[in-house]
Amino acid sequence: MPGYFNFQLPSGDVPTALQDTRPTMAERHQSVPVPSRSRPESLTPASRPHSIMSTGSAGSRDRHTLVAKYLQRRCTAAKWLQPIEEEDGTINESSWVGVAMRLPDGSYYTEPPNVNNNFYTVMQYLNCKVAFTMSSDITAALMDQIGPFQTELQVHPRGIRLPIVQNFSELAYGGTGVSKKSYLCVLREERLVLIWNESVESIMTHGADVEGILVGLIWGSHIGTMTATTPYTSMTPPIAQTPGQTPGRTPSAISEDPEFNEKMGIIQAAIEREENKDTIFNPDIEAQTPPERPFLLLHAGVIGFAMTLVVFVEMLCASRLITEYEWDGGLLRFSLVAVIPFFVSFSLFFMIVIAGSLFQLFGPLTYVRKNSQFYSAKPPKRGRYPNLELPHITIQMPVYKEGLKGVIIPTVTSILAAIRYYEAQGGSASIYVNEDGMQAVPQELAEARKTFYELNNIGYLLSHTHSKKKWYQGKKVQDNPEGFQRKGQFKKASNMNYCLSFSIRVEDELLRLIAAKSSEEDRPEGDITPEEEDVLYKQALATCLEQDEGRTMAGGNVRIGDIILIIDSDTRVPEDCLLLGALEMHESPQVAILQHASGVMQVAHNPFENGITYFTNLIYMSITFAVGNGDCAPFVGHNAFLRWKAVQSVAYEEDGELKFWSDDHVSEDFDMSLRLQMAKFIVRLATYHEGGFKEGVSLTVYDELARWEKYAYGCNELVFNPIYKWWRGPFTKLFMRFLWSEIKLTSKITILAYIGTYYAIACAIPLTLANYIMVGWFNDSLDQFYLTSWKIFVGMAVVFNVLSPIAFAMLRHRLGEKVFVSSIVETAKWTPMFILFFGGISFHLLTAILCHFLSINMEWTATAKEVEAGGFRIGLDKIFRDFKWMYLCIIPIMGGMIYLGAFAPMGFYITDFTAIVPLSNQVACHILLPFALDFSKYFSASVPFPSIVIYGIINNFRLNTLVKNTSTHTFELNIALNFLVSSTEKSMNFRNRYIDQREGVFFKY
Question: Is the pTM of this model over 0.85?
C-alpha cells in the first residue's frame, strides 16, 4: 500500500526529493507489511516530495483545487469513485461521489463541483482537511452484508470498529457518535464509505488501508494489501481506535520471498506476545492454576486513620464539657454527649476523605495495577483453560418505555457482537429482555419491539399491567380483573422477579417433560438430543403461558444460564466481555458478583452532561483506588456478572412468592450485595476493560436530582423502619443482620459512611437554619461544646476545595491519566457547578427521607434513556412540578433573613456574618438550582461554567434542553462530598437536534 504518492507540477517536473533513509527497528515495529526484496523499477519507492502547496506561483486556492483534482483522478484510477449500484441493479450517477478539500478560508472545494449540499455540511461538521467517498464493487458487496439494525462493524484481530449511520443527513447534524477521530463512516442509504484525514499526503494510503479492511470483512479474515513503498513509512491514522490498539498499524503485505515472510512472521509473533503479555498465557513461565489473590489491608489503614480523626475530634469536644464542669460544676451539659453518635455518622465520610486524600498523595499505587481478592486489574487468560467448556450466559436486560431505534437496537447490536465473539470461542449466550413497557407504548411500537426480538432470537417476557385499582377497592389481587400488584416504589425489582420466577417455572416444566419422555421411551435423560430438547422447551413454554391465562406474554429463550450479565437498556459492552467474565467466574467460584467499572456514553455533550460525565469517571476512579487497596467492591446494579446459583441461594419467600430482588427497597442492588456478602460470597470489581462498558448519565438537573432523591430514600429504608413500625424497633432486620454479619469491619465502616453522607446533606438546611437562630440570638449563651456551622463551612471548604482536588489531581497524574496542572484546571472549571448542585439538594433529600419515615408514597419510574425535546413551557412545568414545595419553604426563609438583617426591632437583628453565610449559601443554591443548571442548549462544552450561570440568571426562565438519563449508580462512596474534583472531558462543539423517536420508522430502512 502506498505510504505517499508522487506529485507532478503542471510543467511535468518532479519536485526536489527528500533524502531516503533506512527505517529503524522502532519504525519497523509500527507496521506489519513485508516488502518484496525485488521490485520492478516502476514500483521502487521514491523519496518523499515537497508539498505541492509550497511550489509554483499560483494562489493558495489554485494549489488546493489542483490537488483536489489530482486526488479525484487517483481515486478514479483506483476505482473508488464508481457509480453507485442500487439494490435493484440500476446504476445511479450519484451526487455523493467525489473528493473534498478544505481551503485556507475554511470553505471546501469539491471535485466534481456538483456534489450534494449535505456533503458540504458533513465536511463542516467533521472539519477535516481532506475527504472522499469510496464507492466500488467492494463497498457494494459490503452493503449487502450489513444488517438492517447494525450500527457498527467489528474488524478482527485489529479491534477496529467501523461506525454505520443511516445517511449523510443524519451524519451532518450530529448525534450519531461519529467524531472527527473516527476517520471513516459507512453510509447505509447512499451505499458508500466516507473516508477523511488530516493529511493530504496520507489520504490515499488511508483509502488503501480501508479497502483492505473492507475486503477482509467480506472474505471473513484479514487479507494483506500490496504496497509499492517501504512498509515502515505508513502514515495511516488510527481508525476508530479502541483501547489497547496499536496506533498506525497497517495490514501485512505479501512478500514474494517465503523464507523472508517466515522470518518476519516469527518476529511479528514475538512482538505480539510482548505487547500482549498480560493477556497471552505462556506455559513456560506461568503455572497452570491462576495465581493466588492476596487479601489487602491498605484500605484498612485508611479507615483506621479516619476513625482516629473522628475519635480525636469528638473527644476534643467532650473535653470542653469536662473543663466547663470544673469551672461551674454544672452536670446538665453532659446531656449533649447524646448527640455525638449522630455527628459521628455525619463526619465519618468527611474524615475518610481526609485520610483517603493523604493516601492518594503519598500512598503506594502498586495494588491498583494488580489483582487481589476484591479487585481485578488484569484479565484472565484464555490459554490457561484450553479445554474449558464455557458456560451458558444469559444477558438480562430490563426494559421500560425506552425507544426502540434510539436505545434498544444499539444496545442489542453491541450485545450480539459480544455473543458472536463468545460463540466463536466455544461458548453460548442468549438475551433475556424483561419487558415492562410494551403495554405502556402505542400498539404499533409494541409490535415493532416484538418483531425485533423475534428477528434477533431474543427471549422476552411481558407481564400483565399493574393494577389500576386503589387499595380500598379490593383487598385481594385475585379479585382485580385489571391486573396484579407490583410492589415497591421502583418497579425494576418486581419486573425482574417476575421474569426470573417464570423462567424457573419453565425450567421445572421442561425437566418434567424430559423425565416423562425418557421414562416413556426407556432411555437415559442424557440421550435427549438438542433438537428434541428444543421441541420439549416450546411445549413447556406454551404450558406455562396457558397456566397464566393471558397474564403473561413470552417468546424466545427465557431460560437462565449459569451466569447472568445484567445490563441497562442503554449500555455498550466490550466484545470480549462474555469470555473474560466466564473465565473469571470459573477461576473464582466464591465470587457471586463481578462488577465492571463503566465508562460514560455521552449523547449531547452539553455542559451539564460533561460535568456529570467527569463526575462519574471520578466516582469510578475513587472506587477503583479504594477497592484496589483492599475495600469490598460495590454492586451498582448493571454491567455486572452474577452467579445464578448464588442469587438463588439468597432468595427468600414473601407473600407466597419467591423473591430474588427486594421490591421493598428502592436500592435493590445494594440489598442484593449485602445479602450475598452476608452469605460469605465475594463481590469483585474489574477494571481491565478500561471503560469498555459504557452507560449513560443525566443530561438535566431534574434527572440527577431525582437520582439523588432515590438514593437517599433507598438508604433510609435499608436502615430505618417507617415510624409507624417503630414499636418493633427503629432499625430494619436487614440492617441489624448487616451489623452483626461477618463482613469485615472496615467495609462496614465504609458503607455506614456512605449512608451517613445522605443524612449529612439532608440535614444541611435545618441545621444551618437552627445555627442561624442560635448564633444570631443566643451566641453568648452557647456551650463551647457546640461547633458552629461557620467552622464546619470553613473546614469543608479547605478539605473539598484544596486538599481533595490536589489529591485527585496527583492520583490521576501518578496513574498516567492526566497531567497534574491540567487536572487542577479541569477541577476549577467545574467547581462552581457542583458547589451549586450539592448546595441545592438538601431540601430534596430531606423530603425523600421524611417521606419514608412518614410512609408517604414516593415512586420513581425507569430513567429516561434518550434525548427528548424541551422548551420554555416545559421548563416552567418542570420547575412548578418538582420545586414548588421547595420554594414555598425557602422563600420565607430568605424573606426572614432580610427582615432580621435590616428591619427587625432592636435586639432581634442578626448581622453576624458567621451566622448568615452558611444559611445564605444554602438558600441561594436552592433558589438558583433549577435555573442556573438548565441552560445546556445555548453553549458548547468549552464554555466555562460560571458564564453559564451568569447567562442563565440574566435570561431567567429560558429553559430549553435535551433530556436523557440513566442510572449511574448507588455506590457513590467517594463522591458525595468529593464533588469539587469533578471536571469534564475534552471540549467538543455541542450540536443539538431533535431525534426522531418514532421507532416504527426504523423498519423502513
Answer: no
